[in-house]
Amino acid sequence: MKKFTSVSDVKNLQEIIKKALQIKENPHSETEKGKGKTIGLVFLNSSLRTRLSSQIAAQNLGLNVLTLNAAQEAWNLEFADGAVMNGDTVEHIKDAIEVLNQYCDIIAVRCFAGMKSKEDDVNESILSQFEQHAKVPVVSLESATRHPLQSLADCITIIENWKKDHKPKVVLTWAPHIKPIAQAVGNSFAEWMQEMDVDFVIANPEGYDLDKSFTKDTKVIHNQDEALKDADFIYVKNWSSFDEYAAMPEVKENWMLTREKLENTNAAKVMHCLPVRRNVELSDEVMDGENSIIYQQAKNRIFSAQTVFSEILDEINSK
Amino acid sequence: MKKFTSVSDVKNLQEIIKKALQIKENPHSETEKGKGKTIGLVFLNSSLRTRLSSQIAAQNLGLNVLTLNAAQEAWNLEFADGAVMNGDTVEHIKDAIEVLNQYCDIIAVRCFAGMKSKEDDVNESILSQFEQHAKVPVVSLESATRHPLQSLADCITIIENWKKDHKPKVVLTWAPHIKPIAQAVGNSFAEWMQEMDVDFVIANPEGYDLDKSFTKDTKVIHNQDEALKDADFIYVKNWSSFDEYAAMPEVKENWMLTREKLENTNAAKVMHCLPVRRNVELSDEVMDGENSIIYQQAKNRIFSAQTVFSEILDEINSK
Amino acid sequence: MKKFTSVSDVKNLQEIIKKALQIKENPHSETEKGKGKTIGLVFLNSSLRTRLSSQIAAQNLGLNVLTLNAAQEAWNLEFADGAVMNGDTVEHIKDAIEVLNQYCDIIAVRCFAGMKSKEDDVNESILSQFEQHAKVPVVSLESATRHPLQSLADCITIIENWKKDHKPKVVLTWAPHIKPIAQAVGNSFAEWMQEMDVDFVIANPEGYDLDKSFTKDTKVIHNQDEALKDADFIYVKNWSSFDEYAAMPEVKENWMLTREKLENTNAAKVMHCLPVRRNVELSDEVMDGENSIIYQQAKNRIFSAQTVFSEILDEINSK
After folding, report:
1. Per-residue model confidence (pLDDT) at position C75
2. Which residues of A are annotated as a binding site for carbamoyl phosphate?
3. Spatial distance between the Cα atoms of C315 and B207, rounded to a whole number of angstroms
4. Which of A122, B131, B182, C22 is most buried, judged by most C-beta within 10 A?
5. C-chain residue closest to A79, CA distance
6. Dist CA C13 CA C22 (whole Å)
7. Which CATH number fits domain B7-145+301-317: 3.40.50.970, 3.40.50.1370, 3.40.50.300, 3.40.1160.10?
8. For residue range C266-315, what is the model confidence (pLDDT) as tens digits?
9. CATH topology of domain B162-292
10. Exposed (0-12), middle (13-18) or buried (19+): which is A214, by Cβ within 10 Å?
């Protein structure tokens, strides 16, 4: 694997999931693979699971880990090409990346959507600079439009929880929130589900359709009850409007996932990428109930990251 | 040892101190014990000694260390059960803990008293959530009412500095400060001294008596001169009022420990957990004088932590 | 090497550069040298290259690394001797250092000029406390008046890029900036160049002469064109006025380094310590052009630090 910023970097998803499950069985089987090599984890945004799971994954592979909280530990970065840097920004992102090229064998970066300019976010104004200037493999720890390490963990979790011989019905359902949230997790989950052998539908209120370039021909239903019917997996996630970018059009129905809503499903397993707003996105009952596989999903973040780092190290070591 | 949040988690204090002194002699004698295991150090508050000594202790045992500055690197946590999370908090503490369960073999947490609600602090509103939800051993790096790793280091330091054959007189004396400080270090020191073979008294101004559930039948003296007489060890520490919670009732006498006050003692050794407000809590002369064993005490934080982590690893490895 | 805070700590500069180049050839040749030892990296200021390169250097030597962002992770430190600490400061720097003495085998510290009191900065009010109170070797990660790890990396980079048999002409040229910047990099580069076998001149506008105690008898030219003529290396760096301390006297000419200005040189290699304000200090064309050896210089920060840590470990291990 040469880099990892979307599902298109994965040649064979079934193989990757299989490898991740093997790593989960024996996470310390490759402790020499990363020896003498360094991964830089660059955080332009907050992180808990991604931060910790990436570190564990890297340590399990024997990698040296450099963590940089860019804004707090370094300084404000400039992102505009050709900028006359006579303002608040202290270093251009491309210079920071060129320095990371000198210091790291893998660069992993977390760079959320700014939620101000649709164009900037759609064009991945930050991640694209890493893709352009990095001379070592780049791993996305969530970018403006995608969260692929999360999506791979989601796939692993679905496979682990599905032993029946028919295709599971997987529903990605929008959930309420109190502020505008990026579409990255939703977009990404849609892309990955399209590569999985599942029946996938998306449920969201009108005005909240995700970017068509991610959802493609996935069925989008504007009625949550209808969408959840007979679901085997329900993925709960908020996102703000894509069309009216970053807006939060009024939603009259209550889309919070409750235990009552699970009754109409096929004893659906409930997923969420965390952090979750309890009793806003889903109820305590669902979060703490037996249908939730949310913590298992969080654990699989380790094996998602470790598999990706391991594949990338294979590529590096083969040179 | 199954967890470490107070002296009651220690079966045999003399044995633990003996082990700590052995570890101090040879800190690199157990570098394989923690191999392949991960300790999460979660800081909800600032830290210097605890942060560094815990990392050294963990590294000495071969543990992987994950450090999380929760507020800065992740986000605001919700602590109220059943909360409708439509405000500033982004993730519920119990979800964060459940995720730490997936990632760590030991969870260590620093969570100061909030100093606003006596009930919350007395009930250890944060630590209790860790004790309730953690499925791996929990270590307190200081909580609302106790600082047990400090107290164990204090015991080690007293034993190291006492070669005579009679019981030493140990005085915990209140000291001035400029803002309301928690009672945790004082409470905890009282609890541990009650388990030690020492004559222990507490000196504090009226209005500053510590919680009786910690001091029990320890003699509390409201006159510093009287208390310090013939002292072998003096532990200097400020705390705010427990009765009138977090208040700072006026104190007319000057309780700052000075060299003059040492004259009446048995050449007492002076202790403080640090950080110390020089020339407020104690004078430069005392801090920098030959009676001070304060830096030795700081050093013993390593061996206190290493002993506890080692004992907990024994328990984990025995399963 | 007993400590490393200026060029005067280096006995034989040619030998040190030679060693650094050997380490660059084989950075993993001494992975056991630091085993069981701990380096504390204390940041009182922001850092990107220094932070990352120091960590890599330490890891390459097998050292345990403790990183402390003092203000964010610990608290405000008091620097005044004899202070009555009844204000904002929580711990005296000398107590913090004494604790670091207990925890670390090497203490490395970054402490910028405060840019308020010329006297404090000239006297290295912070670093001097480390030099006074540290009982283990101290390494400067940049102080008020010097940046010696940068300067050593600069020397390595010049040697790597000079194969001709005559002395190269090295020009340190002032560059514009938007706010007052310390003189540390300029001072330090001057000191080190005086020890190198080069023709060294400094170019800066009137009012911006560096402290004579650093520049000594180095030729200072107030006309940039004249200074750059036939240059083999150009080091671009801003600094504020030393005479009128931290002021920014008006400069009428444009001192930004542009491609046009390179025409008059001997195809000069361009250097900068980074971070750089693009199109303020130098133009995009120069930064991204073939004359720039700036990223190579950044890479050499690893080997500069590793050489120094290695030399200090030799001293420690010889005891």
Report:
1. 85
2. 47-50, 75, 110, 147-150, 273-274, 301
3. 55
4. B182
5. C278
6. 14
7. 3.40.50.1370
8. 999 999 999 999 999 999 999 999 999 999 999 999 999 999 999 999 99
9. Rossmann fold (3.40.50)
10. buried
Cβ of C275 and A90 within 8 Å? yes
The answer to whether the CB of B62 falls within 8 A of the CB of B310 is: no
For domain A7-147+301-317, say whether CATH 3.30.1360.70 is its number.
no
Give the mutation candidate from B35, B41, B99 for the A interface (greatest A CB count, under 10 A): B99
Q: Tell me if C7-146+301-317 shares its fold with C162-292.
A: yes
CB atoms within 10 A of CB B170: 24
Cβ-proximal residues to B298 (8 Å cutoff; 6+ apart), any chain: B49, B53, B153, B274, C98, C99, C102
Peptide bond into C168 cis (omega under 30): no
Give the largest Cα separation in chain A, rounded. 62
What is the reported pLDDT for C74? 85
| Residue C179 touches chain A, beta carbons under 8 Å | no
* Secondary structure (DSSP) of C262-318: HTTSSS-EEE--S---BTTTB-HHHHTSTTB-HHHHHHHHHHHHHHHHHHHHHHHHT
**Domain ranges for chain A:** 7-147+301-317, 162-292
Q: Cα A114 vs. chain centroid, distance in angstroms?
A: 16
Nearest-10 crossing angle of helices C49-60, C294-317: 40
Confidence of residue C212 (pLDDT cuts 50, 70, 90): very high
Phi then psi for residue A132, to 5 deg, are -75, -40
Predicted ipTM of the assembly: 0.95
Name the one residue in this structure whose structure tokens are 């407000």.
Answer: B277
Angle, CA of C32, C35 and C36, to the nearest 5°: 165
Indicate the fold that domain C7-146+301-317 takes in CATH: Rossmann fold (3.40.50)
Cβ atoms of B42 and B68 within 8 Å: the answer is: yes
Q: Chain C residues with CB inside 8 Å of A66's CB?
A: 52, 55-56
Nearest residue on chain A to C72, alpha-carbon basis: A72
- What distance, in Å, lies between the first and last C-alpha atoms of chain A? 12
Give the mean pLDDT of B53-66: 97
Tell me the residue type at C39: I
Q: Which tokens is B264 given? A: 């009446």
Contacting residues of A for B63, CB less than 8 Å apart: none
Token digits of residue A221? 């239903």
**Per the CB < 8 Å rule, is C91 touching B48?**
yes
pLDDT tens digit string along C90-112? 999 999 999 999 999 999 999 99
